[in-house]
Amino acid sequence: LDSLELAARCFREPDIASPKVAKVCLDATPTFAMHWLIPRLAGFRWQHPEIEVRLTTSQGVIVDTPDIDLHIRRDPRHFGALSGEAFMDEYAVPVCRPMAGGLPGLPLIRMRSRPDLWPKWLAERSLPAAQAAYLEFDNTILAIQAACEGLGIALVPVLFVGELLRNGALGVLPGASPLRSGSYHLLRRQR
């Protein structure tokens, strides 16, 4: 959010008669926007009423257009031609509905958008990936919901499930350690 504030200052137009609102158009992935950014926007608006954040969401490779000032992405393959500055590391943990954690044979919930997570987590623990039973969903949002419904164990970023862990809707698999799964970057055109 500090980076957003700094970028917004660059867009302000000096006006002696009345202060103008700086508009910053920000594009982020849907899950990041929903679970991390939006919960913090009210506090940001309260502290910086002179900055209007316009939020859009998209996935995949960034299409650089003049109507978007800043982008947030985790996967470097999605940066396109933009330069980025890392601002937050991501750690994933296996989570499930608390009472489902003791059920034998519970499937692992895999996301098509993040197929690398379970193989990395299992390999770091010298566990066989080939024997795992998977239940597959398109994205992190659906995987989180599936875990909340007790359908299996999802390996998801902690920053997306913090509130669900605090209120007991989800629990971390007992004895499980986190996997460093990337870093989020703030990206912008060179200007």
| Helix percentage range | 25-40%
The number of distinct β-strands equals 9
Taking pLDDT < 50 over at least 5 consecutive residues as the criterion, the unreliable ranges are: 13-18
Largest sheet: 9 strands, mixed
Which percent range describes the beta-strand content? 25-35%
Descriptive report:
The chain contains five helices and nine strands. Strands 1, 2, 3, 4, 5, 6, 7, 8 and 9 form a nine-stranded mixed sheet that branches. Helices cover about 30% and strands about 30% of the residues. It has about 190 residues and is an alpha/beta fold.
Which helices and strands, and how do they pair?
Blueprint: H1 2-11, E1 22-28, H2 30-47, E2 51-57, E3 70-73, E4 83-96, E5 108-111, H3 117-124, E6 134-137, H4 140-148, E7 153-157, H5 158-166, E8 171-172, E9 179-188
Parallel strand pairs: 1-2, 1-3, 5-6, 5-7
Antiparallel strand pairs: 3-9, 4-7, 4-8, 4-9
What is the gist of this entry?
The protein is an alpha/beta fold and 191 residues long.
Output the keywords:
single chain, 191 residues, alpha/beta, nine-stranded mixed sheet, 9 strands, 30% strand
